[in-house]
């Protein structure tokens, strides 16, 4: 990024989200948007997380509850299918796991250092009592 | 919906509060977020009445404290509206945290500060302790000595504050009760002339511009904090005074009323002088004139612009 002089930035405690103009935010996917260096989208805050959600698509019914409830817009959904988690911005709050209605849950929290494939291989079975 | 204009007489009998409320009506404020406090209450009450009676199209937000009042003003100004409010004394003290937010965010809010002593002891009448308390908050400060000036300086404050090179909030001071509740002859501009002078609000980096989304009130740490503050203070100290001069000159052409950043009366040959603010100026001039009949060459200096402190 080009360096700026002390009096060359725009006034006010203000940052722009996108380079230039954006016509249709709602219709433009995040990966297709031209975010600025100042945008929180371009910064990773994954090191704020102690535990992380792991997604197991075998049980997912694509209800989108997790997508609706995630406070950090970190559930990635395409064409109403859940495809994964934005691990650069997920804070590990566990709300998505809490709201997931399947049995067993399609999202579970694990320690940050846990290996995803291992956890998915040993995923809990259906809870008969709850069912 | 068409909004009614008000037919004003050449000379109206207004107190300082009503004069300020009339100026806010003529400037077509988008949002007033306010909490009542003596002696400033009639300003926002007056605005609310104009709104209820169909004279203005705006939003009056009744909030739960002065802190919330200025917070509401900051949100509305960042969204891209012309914004004003009024307060006094303890109300300003409660508001003070947010005043720094407004100036750092470079939001051109106009605050009518009806000067009243800060407690304790509790006192609803005027001194200037509230005005002094926020002198380093980064706001431009004007001082009105009379209801006429309270009216004029409101129009002037919007012009200066909203200029895109300035973009700083402005306080218009008037003395509690002595100005705010003392009815005098005031010569207002017509609605068209007043709005023509202030002009349509020109937003800058407004949050309601969805094609250019912005985040307001961001955090900067040691990397950018000094740069932002240096820029803010530099603009306050170098850009505001010339702008005020320009707007004063334009206002004189329109109204015939001449303002100076420092008002001097009988100072050319004065041996002694009284330096003061607010309604004291008029009293001091009266006394100085009397002194001169007794052979004492007295003069008076009244400070019209308190921040940035005039320097030449
Ligand atoms: S853990 Fe919290 S932040 Fe992360 S995806 Fe789930 S709901 Fe979102
Ligand atoms: S809440 Fe559970 S089932 Fe619903 S979309 Fe998310 S992961 Fe899939």
The level of helicity of chain A is: 10-25%
**CATH architecture term of the largest domain in chain B:** 3-Layer(aba) Sandwich
Strand order of the largest sheet of chain A: 2-5
The sequence of SSEs of chain A as H and E is EEHEEHEH
How many individual helices of chain B? Answer: 10
What compounds sit in this structure?
iron/sulfur cluster
Mean pLDDT of chain A: 91
Task: Quote the CATH topology of the largest domain in chain A.
Answer: Alpha-Beta Plaits
Strand content of chain B: 15-25%
**DSSP strand tally of chain B:** 13
Number of helices of chain A: 3
Strand content of chain A: 15-25%
Please give a structural write-up.
The complex is a heterodimer of chains A (131) and B (312). With 131 residues, chain A is of the alpha+beta class. In chain A, strands 2-5 form a two-stranded antiparallel sheet. Chain A has a two-stranded antiparallel sheet with strand order 3-4. The longest helix of chain A has 6 residues. With 312 residues, chain B is α/β, with parallel strands linked by helices. Chain B has ten helices and 13 strands. Chains A and B meet through β1 of A and β9 and α8 of B. The complex binds iron/sulfur cluster (2 copies). One iron/sulfur cluster binds next to α1 of chain A.
């Amino acid at each position: 990024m080009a360096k700026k002089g002390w009096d060359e930035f725009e006034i006010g405690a203000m940052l722009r989200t996108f380079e230039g103009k954006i016509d249709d935010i709602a219709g433009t996917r995040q990966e297709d948007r031209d975010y600025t260096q100042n945008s929180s989208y371009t910064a990773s805050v994954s090191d704020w997380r102690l535990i992380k959600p792991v997604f197991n698509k075998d049980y997912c019914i694509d209800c989108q509850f997790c997508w609706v409830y995630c406070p950090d817009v970190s559930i990635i959904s395409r064409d109403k299918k859940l495809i994964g988690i934005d691990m650069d911005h997920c804070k590990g709050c566990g709300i998505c796991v809490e709201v997931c209605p399947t049995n067993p849950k399609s999202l579970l929290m694990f320690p940050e250092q846990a290996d995803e494939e291992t956890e998915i291989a040993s995923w809990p079975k259906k809870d008969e009592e709850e069912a | 919906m068409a909004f009614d204009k008000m037919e004003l007489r050449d000379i109206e009998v207004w107190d300082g509060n009503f004069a300020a409320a009339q100026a806010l009506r003529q400037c077509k404020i988008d949002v007033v977020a306010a909490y009542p406090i003596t002696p400033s209450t009639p300003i926002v009450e007056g605005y609310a009445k104009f709104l209820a009676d169909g004279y203005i199209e705006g939003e009056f937000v009744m909030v739960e404290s002065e802190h919330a009042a200025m917070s509401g003003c900051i949100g509305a100004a960042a969204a891209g509206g012309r914004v004003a409010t009024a307060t006094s004394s303890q109300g300003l003290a409660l508001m003070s945290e947010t005043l720094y937010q407004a100036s750092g965010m470079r939001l051109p809010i106009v605050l009518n500060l009806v000067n009243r002593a800060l407690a304790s002891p509790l006192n609803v009448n005027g001194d200037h302790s509230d005005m002094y308390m926020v002198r380093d908050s980064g706001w431009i400060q004007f001082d009105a000595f009379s209801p006429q000036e309270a009216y004029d300086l409101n129009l002037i404050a919007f012009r200066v504050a909203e200029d895109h090179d300035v973009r700083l909030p402005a306080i218009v001071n008037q003395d509690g009760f002595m100005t705010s509740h003392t009815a005098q002859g005031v010569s207002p501009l017509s609605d068209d002339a007043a709005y023509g002078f202030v002009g349509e609000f020109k937003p800058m980096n407004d949050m309601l511009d969805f094609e250019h989304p912005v985040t307001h009130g961001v955090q900067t740490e040691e990397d950018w904090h000094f740069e932002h503050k240096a820029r803010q203070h530099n603009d306050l100290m170098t850009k505001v005074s010339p702008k005020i001069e320009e707007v004063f000159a334009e206002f004189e052409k329109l109204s015939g009323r001449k303002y100076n950043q420092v008002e001097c009366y009988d100072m050319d040959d004065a041996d002694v002088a009284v330096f003061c603010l607010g309604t004291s100026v008029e009293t001091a001039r009266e006394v100085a004139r009397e002194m001169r009949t007794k052979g004492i060459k007295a003069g008076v200096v009244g400070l019209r612009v308190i921040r940035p402190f005039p320097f030449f």
